[in-house]
Every structure is written in C-alpha cells, then in structure tokens.
Specification:
Keywords: Oxidoreductase, Thiamine pyrophosphate. The protein has 946 residues and is α/β, with parallel strands linked by helices. It has four domains: 186 residues, no CATH class; 224 residues, Thiamin diphosphate (ThDP)-binding fold, Pyr/PP domains (Rossmann fold); 245 residues, Rossmann fold, CATH 3.40.50.12470; 141 residues, Rossmann fold, CATH 3.40.50.11610. Helices cover 39% and strands 13% of the residues. The protein is built from 33 helices and 24 strands. Strands 3-9-10-8-7-4-6-5 form an eight-stranded mixed β-sheet. Helix 16 links the parallel strand 9 and strand 10. Helix 29 crosses helix 33. It is globular. The relative contact order is 0.07.
Length: 946
Amino acid sequence: MFTQLQIDSAYSGANAAFIEALYEEYLRDPESVPEDWRNRFARLNRREQVDTPHAPVRETFRKLARERANTSSAQHCLSPLAAEQQAAVLRLINGYRMRGHQNANLDPLKLRPQPTVPDLDPAFLQLDRLDPTTHFNTGSLAAPDRMPLKQIIELVRRVYCGTIGAEYMHITNTHEKRWIQERIEGRPRIEGASVDEKRWLLTLLTAAEGIEKHLHSRYVGQKRFSLEGGESLIPLLDELIQHAGRNGVEETVIGMAHRGRINVLTNILGKPPQEIFDEFEGRIERDPARYVGDVKYHQGFSTDIDTPGGIVHIALGFNPSHLEIINPVIEGSVRARQQRRGDRKGEQVLPVQIHGDSAFAGQGVVMETLNLSQTRGFSTGGTVHIIINNQIGFTTSNPLDTRSTLYCTDVAKMVQAPIFHVNGDDPEAVLFVTRLALDFRFRFNKDVLIDMVCYRRLGHNEADEPAVTQPEMYKKIRRHPTVREIYTQQLIADSIISPSQAQAMVENYRKSLEQGRVVSRPVICAVKNRFAVDWRHFHSVAWTCPATTSLPTEQFKSLAQRLLELPNGFELHPRVEKIWRERQRMANGDQLIDWGFGETLAYASLLTEGCPVRLSGQDAGRGTFFHRHAVIHNQVDGTPHIPLQHLADDQANFLVIDSLLSEEAVLGYEYGYATAEPNALTLWEAQFGDFANGAQVVIDQFISSGGEKWGLLCGLVMLLPHGYEGQGAEHSSARLERYLQLCANANMQVCVPTTPAQIFHMLRRQILRPFRHPLIVMTPKSLLRHRLATSPIQAFTEDGFLNVIGEIDEIDPESVKRIVLCAGKLYYELLETRRSRGITDTAIIRIEQLYPFPSDDFAQAIAPYRNAEELIWCQEEPLNQGAWNQIKHRFAEQVAAGLQLWFVGRPRTAAPAVGYRPVHMQQQTLIDEALTGRINPEMNPMVNQL
C-alpha cells in the first residue's frame, strides 16, 4: 500500500501524468487501485476543496469524471489498452513541459548536436503505432479537452521545441506553473507581431548593428566590447521599457557589465552620439584633478523616455570590470527608490540586470544576490534578468570548462525563477518572452530570467582574435548572417518591406550618427520628478564642514526613557532585563552610559529629527557581542519589539535586518542604497571586522573609488569590530591598513572611536553635515562593556565628535618627556598601566579619526608638551599592518627639532594576529615599551629619516 507521504509527494508535476492514468483506472474499476488512492480519488469527485496545491491534477480528474458521468459507460468505458495509451499521451505532454527545452531551436550557430531525450519521442511511449487522428484527452494542457494525437504532438512541439525553450516545471507553486502554461500553450506565438511591430523591430536591429559598424570603422582597434551577434538585446530592452510603462512602472534601474553598454547607451538611453565620439577621442570636460573618470564602457547614464503608460525614468548604473558585482548595487539602489515612493510591492520601480552567460554561472555574487530577492530587508519585488548568452566565456568555448550545469541559468532555480531560453536570431520570439517575463514579474513579484542565446561576432574585445582558440566556432560565425540580415530577408519575403526600404533604414541611421543626433526614441527633457534627489546640496563640501551633534539635556533624557518603554506584558530575557535596568540608571544619570546605549541613542535622535536609519549585518539586531538589543523578544511568546520604531508618531523609518550570511552581496546592496538615498543613515556591520574581506571587491571598486571614477556620492557607514582580544588571526583585525591605503583626496573617512559619546557624535555627524562620503569605523569588542569606556550625559549634550582626544589625567605638561599616540582599545590598556605604575612623564593622546588626518587638532593636542623628547606611535597590529605605514608621515610633519619619532608594535608577520593565548599576552610588552621608552631598535630602522 502507498503511504501518506508517497501520496503527497507523488502529486508533484513530474508525476502528474502517472496519477492521471491511475485515475482513469479508478474510473474503470475503483477496486483496481490501492485503497489510499481510492479514498483520495473519491474525495476529488466531491465538491469539497482539498489539497489546494494540487489544483491542476484535481481539475483534470474532475474533467474526466464529468466526461464519464455525461456518457454511457458502455460507450466510453476505457479498456486497459486505451487507458494505457491515454496515460502515455499525458506523459508525453508532461515530458515536453519538463524537457522540451532540451530539443528547442535555441542556438543560432547550431554548434552542438541536440541531445536525445526519450521523453519527447512518441515511439518511446509506443504512440507511433497509433492512428494519428485518434482523439485523446489533453489533461491539463491549455487546449481543447480532446484533440487528435497528431495535433497534440504538433502543439507541444511548437510550444516547447521552437525558438523558445521554457523551464518552469521546477517551480513548486502550482498557480505560477499554470499561469505560465496558459500563456505559452493557450496563446501560441504564431499569432505573431503586427506589421508595425515588425517594421519597428527591423528599425531597432538596424540601429543595433549600425552603431557597431560605425564605431568599428571610425575607431579601428579601440575597445568597445561590441554587441555584434547579440543585437536582439536592443529590441528586447526597448520592449521591456515600453511594456513596463504600460504596467505602471515609473523608474527602471539597469545593471550590466561592459558588453553592449555603448550600444545600449546610444540606442536605448539616448546618449548623444557626439558624447560617445568625444570619449573615444579622449575629449573630456571635467576637471581631471578632481574626477579621474572611467572608460566609456563602464559609464552610467540616466534619461526619461515616453511610454504608453507615461514617462519612465531609466538609470543605467556605473559598473567596474568586475562582471556581476553590479547586481547587489542595483538592487540596493532600487530599494531606496521604492521606499522613497512608498512602493512596497515594487510596482513603480523595476530592477533589470543584464548578465554574461559565463559570469552568471561563475560569479558567486549572482547566487548571493538571488538569495536576497525574497528576504524581508532586501526584496525589490522581483528582478528581470537578461543573459547575453554568447556561448563562450572570455576565451573559453567549451561549456565543460565554464560550468558544471546544463545551462548557465541553472543557479536561478534556487529561487524557483522561471527561465525562458530564446534564440537571439528570432527577434519576434525575443519580444514574446520579454512580455511574458515582465508579466510574470508583475503578477508574482519574483525574479524571472530571459536567456538570449546568441554569439559573439568579434573577440572578447576588438583587438582579440578568437579564432586562435575557437577555430570551428568562428568559421560558422563568419559565414553566419547577422540577425538584421536574417530578419530583413524575412520581411522582404513576407512583402512587409522592400529591399530599398531596408537599405534606406541603414542610410538614415548612419546619417543621424554622423550628424551627432540622438538616435534612440525621443528623450523627454526637463521632467519634474518629485521623488528625485537634489544632490547639489552635497557637492563640493569639505570634510571639515561643521555640524551640531549635541542634544539639549531634556531631549536626550526623554529619548533615553522612550527607548526603555515596553509593551504591556512584555517579558524580557533575564540577561536583557539586567541590561534594561542598567540603561534605566543611565537614563536617570545614576550610571555612566555604555557603548550599546550610546549608539542606540544616536539612532533614536536621528529618527525623531526625521532621518531614516537602515542597519544591516549578520546578527545586527541583537549585536554580535550582545550589546545593541535594537530588537528584543518577548520570552512568553517570542514576539519581537523594536523600541526604535516606537519613539514618536511622526518619527522616520527605522529598519534593522539580520542579513543572510553574505558580505559581498549585502555590502554591495547597502552601497547601492546609500548612493540613491543621501538623506538616510545607512549602515552595514560586519560580524567580525575581517568578514569584510569577503566584500573586498565592493570596497575597492565602489566604496573607495566610486566618487573619483564616476562622481558618485555615498554616505554609507561600515562598522567593523576590531581589536586584539586573543581570538586568533582572523577575529582580531579588520585590516585597518587596507582602508587607509585606499584613502586619497578625502574620498572616505576612517575613524576609531573609543567612547560611547564619540560613536554618538560620529554617527550623527555623518548625516547632519552635508558631506556624503563613506565612513569606515573600527568598532570595539571588549570596550562594549569596559568599565572605563563610558560617557556621562554631559558628553552627549555639550560636546561633539573629537578627531583627537588629548590627555585626560592631570599631568604637568612641563614634566612630560614622552608622548604616546594610539587609536582604539589599546588606549585603555596604556592608561590603566600608567595609572597603576604612577608614571607621570608620559602623556597619552588618542587619534580618533585617522583619515582625513586632523592635522590642526593633532598639532593642538601635542603643543603643550614643549619638553617632550619622544613621540611614540603604539599599535596592537604588526609593523607591516595597522595604521603606522599610512600615517607616520603625518606625525613627521609635526615633529619639532630634537623630538624623536618611534614605532611600538608587533613584529612583521603574514598573519593579522597570533592564535595562541600565551603569545597574545605578550601585548603587555608593547605597553611597557611605549610607556618607558625602551624602544626595540629592530622595528625602527631609519624611522627618523622621514
């Protein structure tokens, strides 16, 4: 007998044909099927709604039952042979749905023979022996209830094995599958495009080919990463924008790598050709001293285009050469735009990602970004993914070398996205799947893929010779007509255009290019968009721009009290309840404020002042080190409560997300969000500072350099726990030296705050002053609960952020012989040791902002110590790491005659820190050296020759 589990699992789409055949057997003789199935089928015949997920199968069974009830049993009672044949027909239909794409006509070059798929062969199911005019029930096929066998086979072959290959049977949601089936089975593409659409298609293909030929002849040998071979992308994008506009979309944000970008800029976004030509010829207008620029095929652009549903604003994101890294950046930008509009379902702002085939299969950030797509804090209502499938990765032609899957798109099945493969040489099929994909996205708010199978007519770039490594492929490509040529001949054969009209299109496009005119659809100028951000307020602002970050005492105390209010009946965990009691004493002024409360108060103050706050990271809600507790949980029923969302009726939005276990995609997402929303405080917190290593591409190619390459401003904050606590090589260092090495021209800020008041003022300063550059923060671990790392209320209500904190103990400046400089939690170890030993000739100064270096504040801090003989930089990190090598020249600039500059730290090492606790405890040696002046000369050769 079948178990209940077997019955439930057998209802999956792959077994539908088998179940339908079993049901036929039940109708013929109920006793011939197992009892469990007999009972199930009996329920299916009743009106009660059971097993909702299996609606298509149930619908088929009821259809068969109605046929049975409406005819005489003698006339329509199926014999065992007839039932077997009917089941075979249903299995054939299901086979085409499951595997028809494998025999579809997808490859314009026909490079490889199609595989043998038995499920698609009527002979495999012994249907070839039947009279092709025999009528069979079509089951759940979106067609008449009964059709001749021949017509059934013709229909499924036309639908599933033409120039479109649909993959959707991996989707578990029955409604989504049925929707797709009805669209591709019930409305065959043979209805075709209208005459006007065909002519417009040819116009776009002419443009796509025309710009490439023009650039190829005018700028011989210059890189442009042409679209030749994949020209159907241009009508695809044109239709996508127009159809999106019909569906109410008002903004589309596009991410793509370099291939085809110049073509898209020219023919879709309406970038003036003269600007393109100027870039090829090296003519730029911006000041290269302030704006280094980027190559033309990395440039972004924005425009406004009219559609049947109104004007659509289109933004093409700037993108470095690192292939798919743009994916999460675009998603973050889209989320910011959606939130600004209150577009919760993603109906007004549409993300579009254009990929390369090998990059989509090979880059891990693709999977990470797909994994964000349905999560609470990162969803954008579904993305349309377009793959320019050149069937080659860089210089690799064998798919066995580029992936381990059948298709480059298989990774998208992890989110059950439908995948529509389409032959790029059939532009009408490309239009059909574009509308289908968009309609699916709008209907189900999920990602969807268009895999446009084409080829690359030239090499990886225009100077490359691909035939060296792919001789057979390029023999075919050289003989293969372009898609414009193929479609032109098709329209001429159908008497839709004449040869002279086709040639006139070519000539007119070339003339427009030569005259430098916009060749895309007309661009709408001077569009007033009430949701657009005015960035002028943030341009040309120095980092020294002042901001008042302190709060009036009463306002501060009121905020603190509101943060501690709990819903009636809310029961805290005992450990959290202890923290809440301590915070109550802090709010009353009876206890100094600790780090977690100081940071939370910074967010609370901004929210009540109308500034939204977005904080993400792994375990960001509670805080990795059990310090933040921005989200607390009722121990009675587990319901969460977020105090920062309940401060005032008119407060700004606060969102804290415990992100998925990704650094690269999540940090890229937050960067994209911050570049689109300058009026919100956007933060990403690494669980440990070294975890940011997994997102180094985002840091190198966007965060540190996006401003100088593309002129993009971004106020993103990175919180990186840092400090040598004996936790091993990786969990000690956030690789401070890497960030400092990337600093130039005030491109970002690097801070190491040491008190709760400092983190409070620093976070408020980041948004209250109009300086929108990234902020890198080395946050502490042990200082989160250190007895000295606390601040009184006055530090929040009277002061601001201090770039340099001078000596806090009462030491006679005249007696100081030694000035120790440091950053971070090492300060407290130096301080406690000096106090315990009664040392009075050494002053300790903290550098809280390492970049941009606060030279004036530093000079002011050391000025009182006129008798000092030594200036010592002390750090926990090894000599080849940490701040020393990037900051020592700043100290040398301030060193007076006779004042010696020394380094104290760990010896050079390849690892960031030691892994053995006893070795870590040698940190006391560093402290002794710094406070006594007994410097290790081996680590200071030539240091005073700076």
